[in-house]
Structure formats: C-alpha cells, structure tokens
Amino acid sequence: MDITQFVVSSREKALLYGNYSTYRTQLAHRLLNIRKRLRVATRHRGKYNHNANGIKAEQAAENVGYVHLQLLTAERAFAQAMAMKAAHAANKKGITGHTRSHIVSRLDKAAKYAVHLSDVLEQETSGASEGDRLEARAYAALLRGAAAFEKQAWELCLANYAAVWAIYSALSSSAPTRADVFRDLLTDTLEPSLRYAAYQLKMPRSKPIPVIASEALTLAKNIAATPDPAVLVSSINKIDPSVLQPKTPATADGIENLESAAPGTVGGVVASTRTLTWRSREVKIEDAAIASAWAALDLAKARLEAQLIAGGTRMAPKDKAAAYDDVLTVSQDAVDATKAAIDDLRSEGVSQSDSNMQLLYIARTAANYEMISDRIGRNRVLTGEHDGALAQAGPSVAKASRKGGKKSSRQAARLETPGRLLARLKEKVVLYDGTLQSLETVKELPGVAADVELSEQLDATANYFGALKALAIARSHTLVGNATNALALIKHAHDECMEASSSLKAARGDRSSQAEDSPLRTIHVSVADIDFLLDLLQAELQRARALVDIEKQQPLTATAKAGALTLSETLGEYPPGAVDLDKIVTYPPQIQAMPIKPIFLDIAWNYIDYPTKTRGVAAVAKGAAGKGQTADPAASAAGKPSSQEQPQKRGWFGFSR
C-alpha cells in the first residue's frame, strides 16, 4: 500500500510550488475525484452521508482507493491545521488560545481518521502486510504526536514520536528501496521533535535517541493505534533488534564481527564501551554518548588499519590521507560528546572538584589527544615515506612530440624543474608547521603539563619534526645554490635529531612498540624512524660540508666577478670571504643613476614666501621713509622686493632665465 510514500509524495508535490493552503485545496479536489471513482460522493443538492468516509476491511482488500480516501481525509485536516499555524507564525503575539485549540482540534480529527485506518488494516480480511500495518500505526502516532506537541503534553508527545521513530528506523533497514523516505522523515521531523520533547521533560542532552525512545516506549500508556506498547516493541525487534539499543562496535554499520571488518587485527582492539584507559589510568564512563563515540573511534581505527594493510605500498600518499577522514570525524564526535557532558554538569551547578567532573575532564583530555594524534598522523602520511625525510624528485614527465596532428612514438623524458621541487618542499614545510602547532596544542591540554614523562616525549617529538622542517628548508637552499645556509640548517637538524633520539629511546614504552608494528601513523614516533633520520642527517651533513669546501676553494669565475658589486658599494657589509682587490671601485667610470632632489621641489621654491623675507622688505621700506625717500606702497604691501634688493633667482635648478 505504501502509506508513507503516498503521504510524503503528496506533501512534497503540493509544497514545492505552494503552501499548506494550496495543499488543502488540492486535497479537496482529489477527495472529490476519488469519491466519484468509489461512488460515495454526495449527489448534487443531496444530503451528506457521514458514513461515506468510513471503510471496512473487505473494501480495503478489494480496492486500495478506500485506503487513500482515509489518508486524504486525514491529510486535509492536517493541512488545515498547518495552514492556520503558518498564518499566525508571523504574529507578534504568537498563537492565541482560541487559535491553538482550533489547530489541536484539526490535528485530533486527522489522528482519528488515521487510527480508524490502522484498526481496519489490523484485521485479517484487509489483506495488509505487517509492514503496511506498522506504517499505518506510525502515521497515526505521527499525527497524535503533532497534536500533543501543540497541546504541550510532552509525555504523550514523546511516547508517540518515539513509536514513530522506532517503526521508521526498523523499516528503513528492512526496506532498502524506501529507506531514503524513512531517513528523511527521521532526520527532518522526528529527531528534532524527540530532542525538544526530551528537553522539556528535563532529560540529559547527552542521552542517545535510541535510549530515549526505548524508555519512552517502556513507560508509555497512550500511543495512537497501539493498545499494548509491548506488542509494538516486539514487532519492531522482529524486524531489527538493534533499533532500540545504542550503537556498539559490534553492530555499527551492520558489522557483527570486528575481525572480519579488520582482518589481521587483534580481537581486543575495541575496548569496553564503559571504560577508558588514559596514561595507565582507567576511567569509568557513565555517559552513553561518550561511550558510543569511543567505541565508534576504535572501530574506525581498526577499519583504517585494515585498509592500509590491504593497500600496502600501492596506495598513494593522498589516498592514505583520505582514508584518515573517517577517523578524524569520529574523533571529533568524541570530543564534542565530552564537551557536551561537561557543559551539562556545569549548567546543573556541579563544582569542578566533583569526582564526575574530574573523570569527564580526563576523558576530554584523552579525546583531544586522540584527535590531534590522528591529525598529526594524517600530516605524516601526506609528507611521504619516512615522514618526508627522503628527497623525492618526483616522477619524470614524458613530453610527447606531435607531427602533422598525430602522436609520435618518440617521447622525451625530462626531469622535474627546480620550481616544482621548491613547491614540493614548501608543501612539506607547511605540513611540518601544522604538526608543530598541533604539538603545542597538546601541551596546553589539561593535565599534560603535570605529566613529566609525557611532556618530555612531546618535546622530543617536536625536535624530531623540527629537524625534518630544517632538512626541507636546507634542501631548498641547496637548490638555489646557498651551500653555506644549507650546511647551517642541516647541522641544526642533526643536533635536534640527536636530542630527540636520546629522549625517545630513554622513554620507550609499550605503546611506542605498538606504533612500530602498526601501519597507522600517529603522534608516536618509532625508534626506527628516528634512527633512519639520524643516519640520513649524518650523511647529508658530510655532503653539505664537502659542498661548502668545494665552493670556498673554487675561484671566482669571470661572470661572477662581472656581476659582483664593488667594495666601495658594500662598505656596510662585512665581506664573507677574501676581498677581491680588483673590484674596489668601478673602472672605467660609467654613467649611473644617483639619488637627487626631485625637480618639483625646485619649482615650488619659486612660490614660497617666508616670514624672514617679509620682515626684510618692511625694514627696507621703513629705512627709505626715514631718509625722505618714497617707498612703493604697492610693492611693500604685496611683499615684493624693492629695486635696491638682490633680485631672486628663478628658473630650473636656480638658473635665471
């Protein structure tokens, strides 16, 4: 009968280009047409038959149109309620008491039609399957839950929505063809409504939805079309027993045996979902969300390890890094779960010294540590083999020549250009910087600074990646011809690697030995990686010293002499080597650009009047008046010099015109 598919498709078609008022109008026309086909429509100017909407089990078995008649009648009442709710949603006062009661009455009417349909399909003569009966129950409970939501009867609302969630979750696993319809209803409508009803009932936010639904069905007393909730629970368990249970590593994603999902791994990889081990300290986890997240994290790591073992050396670094995405997502979920649990306890007024709060802080530190460790492992995979210690020149590029528009069989291979090599080294340096920043973040986690052994390991790990970063920068200097800078950087990398090697070998433990055997890359650096890098740096150090000695002993070429600056131009720098007495000054002299005063300043000088010049003109005019001479008032007023003054120089650069 596809009850859910019929209802969902009807709503989507109407709401695609309209609203609930449009949906109600369409339902009225569809009801009239289906009544005419079933010959139960009211004649013109005839008396309305109230029993026309009632159907019997035999009618449902003969023609599915009678089932659709019930569904369309219930949907019309539901559409009227939603249209009134949408019309008053923009009102500042909200939905008033009279409007709310009207909406509730329409939803109750829709629920009555749905309950009647469910009761009819429960009869054997209706010919309905078990899935059809469950869908009819779910539709009735959905409408009853909506009415309880508007009445703010949260216990009734939670019980009905829990029944709908359980039914649709079970049907989504048993009916793959319609799984998308059920999942959309679960994620868009049911789960937010369940969470809100649980919030109104003061339930913890960290409680998983399967646990909420199971408890609500156990304590439920009034579920639409369900006289006995235990019968409904048993029907759901027959279809899928894992619906009303929290996800565990054995049931996540349909995997029942971890060893089959991760061949080659130890069966004890997935720890208990209630106990967390962090730095030889066992923490009992009371929160179900944190336990489920940790179990999912263990399972994701087991899958990743199996994928890396199966791929082997054939997998490219980018493919290996992409395989870490699921682990990073699950580890972030574990961090979010611990943070949510801590926030809930803070909102309840629990003090920091409480034992539950302290255990949650340890779990939060462990979750953040695992997330950052996986992030560092992804960066290590991206850098390449041996954490990018080897100089990878990259594959040769085949350059094909073409003649007459046809591909020639001759192909000339060329090596990768220095620019591409520098770009690769720059990418490695960026990854090393991200790793070093992640290590600094780990040091700031609560409880890490007080752990002396862990702090020493983190410092040694930072020295290891600092040595790799210095090695990559030294190789870039070697490519551009700066052998001296490359030698200094390699010497610095060698010193840091020596310090890291001594610290990590002294603090080697069981977990580091596991890191050597496992293909997973994490924050833990194995002793083999450190020994390999140390041997490589010793060889690179000898090579860099040889290059510097060769460069010092090799005389300057004529081209280098011609391009070098003279000693007179570099007096502010100390000469790195011997002074070339042939390049003291430039000889023969050449015409070169020199810094001078801009021309516009000379032009502006001709139009600037200074106070000293004005006072000088006034004194000359006063002296002439005392001697009986007549001064030119216009010239004095304008500040112009008299005939006895020295004429001002004008023109370019002070030359008179």
UniProtKB/TrEMBL annotation:
Location of region: Disordered: 392-413, 622-657
One Pfam family of this chain: SRP68
Main location: cytoplasm
Keywords associated with the record: Cytoplasm, Nucleus, Ribonucleoprotein, RNA-binding, Signal recognition particle
Localization per record: Cytoplasm; Nucleus, Nucleolus
Family annotation (InterPro entries): SRP68 (IPR026258), SRP68-RBD (IPR034652), SRP68_N_sf (IPR038253)
Domain of life: Eukaryota
Biased composition (Basic residues): 400-409
Function noted in UniProt: Component of the signal recognition particle (SRP) complex, a ribonucleoprotein complex that mediates the cotranslational targeting of secretory and membrane proteins to the endoplasmic reticulum (ER). The SRP complex interacts with the signal sequence in nascent secretory and membrane proteins and directs them to the membrane of the ER.
Protein name: Signal recognition particle subunit SRP68
Organismal lineage: Eukaryota, Fungi, Dikarya, Ascomycota, Pezizomycotina
